[in-house]
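Anyone else keep sequences and structure tokens together like this?

Example one:
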Amino acid sequence: MEVVSESTHEADIDQARGKGYSYARAGVPEHLTLDPIGQYIAGVAAWRLVGERCSVWEPGQDGRRHSEQLPVAIALEGAQAVV
């Protein structure tokens, strides 16, 4: 999980050439990018490794991303990440 910044937001969400590509190559099963104030993305962008590529990790009916790796659910409530 990481928080976007002005200097990294493009690489943070680029799944073809940015961090998503690197995470997939490293075998990272899930990753989330948070933007608590919605400056660069709409709150949360999340991906799961499917085969050798990252696929969008959609929120559950409760609006939270439920991890398949850890017994947690993650969301933004206002500007705070909640687990």
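And example two:
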Amino acid sequence: MGTNLFALAGKVGIVTGAGRGIGKAIALGLAEAGADVVVVSRTLSEVELVKSQIEKVGRKGLALEVDVSKRKDIDMMVHKCIETFEKVDILVNNAGISVRNEIMKVSMQDYDQVMNTNLKGALFCAQRAAKEMIKSKGGRIINIASAGGEIAFHGTGVYRASKAALIHLTKTMALEWVQYGINVNAIGPGYCNTPAVSDIRDTKKDQYEYIVGRIPMKRWGDPEEIAGAAVFLASAASSYLTGQTIFVDGGLLIKQ
């Protein structure tokens, strides 16, 4: 395996939803470990900035505007990766959205929007990347789930259902693709300091304090703390690990 089990030199990764937050941190973490990285998002300007940061650490980057709920965009993403780097070794399915609404008020549009990105997008990105990984006899797929896929909370039922389904889908992908040398795992972040939930931290103090009170470490995580788990799952250090979800949540799920 070599002396540095966490090294990613010579590897090529794709990270979806890489313009900010956890996706950005993971993309930079992979680059710092030695990988060239394709960063994609629905907002091209954001991933162009991430690409420039990847290049500053001495790796190659490629920024693409991609909506993972659209098959043509997924096909373009993988095609451009192969065209530029000739292979794909790592896929991180990080693109995700949440609609905050009580179940009684959830619309079909809410449901479709969340599931199309969080579950359908992850499935078909993985399927398309796996076809290339099979050709090269191996690869790593990392699905970004959520600690919310394990526990309920008011107002985010559809989001949490999508992440629970992604955790199970990870197991099935791992089972079906292990024969091709593809390891499939997931990361379940807890509450993190990202733009997506900054309103809770900044304006809903009672809710923020309630959440912190449930976390044994008594704080929210930072995106870079999720990136460490992604580098581990992308590297040779996790070669005997597949079908698992690693919860990086400050201990949230162990406290009743």
